[in-house]
Design goal:
CATH architecture of the largest domain: 3-Layer(aba) Sandwich
Shape: globular
Structural class: alpha/beta
Radius of gyration: 18 Å
Strand order of the largest sheet: 10-9-8-13-11-12
Number of domains: 2
Mean pLDDT: 91
Oligomer: single chain
Strand content: 25-35%
Largest sheet: 6 strands, mixed
Length: 280
């Protein structure tokens, strides 16, 4: 029994990791100047140039695009597991489910209840199970446990862009402007939730690292930390977060998930954070 893993591009997985684990990525679409393009074909610099003077819209893969990806995956595997960004944030889960219903019980569609690095961590966990020969049903059971353990905490210099996009309450954007603090938010239960802000960028990033390290289970004999640094046009800051984590947990399995055009269109530049889960 072989199982293929599909994920949408909101997972922000680095190409090397995608190739290593044979994960198929179904791209989302970004609309620039009235032209729809796959987000993998739009550079960060080009996207930022458009954001400076126009509204940029995005869309999830449609049912036909999911169907095409599933059919291609079934040529090399017996079953398929499809992982999507949170259904509260995108129509990806709904359209993937619609496509899967046309194929039958050989496809499992799972809402990761996360986004970006959190979604990416779930996808990597699923791919590792597939490499071990797990069936789609078995992967679904184990991935549900991973989803329950995934944390995602991030900061921005301003929540204004997120507030305009409707991803956080406008009040959060106003508070960030008024107090001149660094907003923090946690992605849980499928949506972003504002946390108590930090005074300055460095304090915000220290709190993110502390949240990761402090969540380590103390009642387990063995733990492995799986972590992803998230970054929207600020790779050096993401690397610093991972360096801080690795200084305390050198055996952690980590990667950096750099935002593509679709994710960057939603959050704006300057987001940095960590997604993680502890495997016991």
């Amino acid at each position: 029994m072989s199982t293929a893993i599909l994920v949408d591009s909101a997972a922000s997985l680095p190409p090397g990791l995608v190739e290593r684990h044979a994960i198929a990525v179904v791209t989302m679409t970004v609309v620039l100047g009235g032209t729809a393009r796959p987000d993998t074909e739009v550079s960060v610099d080009e996207l930022l140039g458009h954001l400076a003077h126009e509204a940029v819209t995005t869309s999830a893969p449609n049912a036909g695009e999911w169907m095409s990806a599933v059919e291609q995956a079934l040529r090399r595997a017996d079953e398929v597991v499809v992982l999507t960004v949170s259904r509260e944030m995108s129509s990806a889960y709904a359209t993937a489910t619609r496509a899967a219903s046309m194929v039958g019980d050989r496809v499992q569609v799972i809402d990761t209840r996360s986004a970006a690095g959190g979604e990416g961590l779930v996808a990597v966990a699923a791919a590792r199970l597939a490499e071990q020969g797990a069936s789609a049903a078995e992967i679904a059971v184990e991935v549900a446990k991973v989803i329950d353990r995934v944390h995602l905490v991030a900061t921005l210099d301003s929540l204004d862009h997120l507030a305009r996009s409707g991803r956080v309450p406008e009040l959060a954007g106003v508070a960030g402007r008024a107090l001149r603090v660094n907003p923090l938010f946690e992605f849980r239960d499928g949506a972003a939730h504002a946390l108590h802000p930090a005074i300055g960028r460095r304090a915000a990033e220290q709190r993110i690292v502390h949240a990761c390290l402090a969540s380590r289970p103390h009642d387990a004999a063995v733990t492995t930390l799986h972590a992803a640094a998230l970054e929207a046009a600020c790779p050096d800051r993401a690397r610093s977060l991972l360096d801080a984590v690795l200084a305390e947990v050198p055996e952690a399995e980590v990667f950096t998930g750099s935002f593509g055009a679709v994710m960057l269109a939603h959050v704006g530049p300057g987001l940095v954070g960590l997604a993680w889960w502890w495997e016991t």
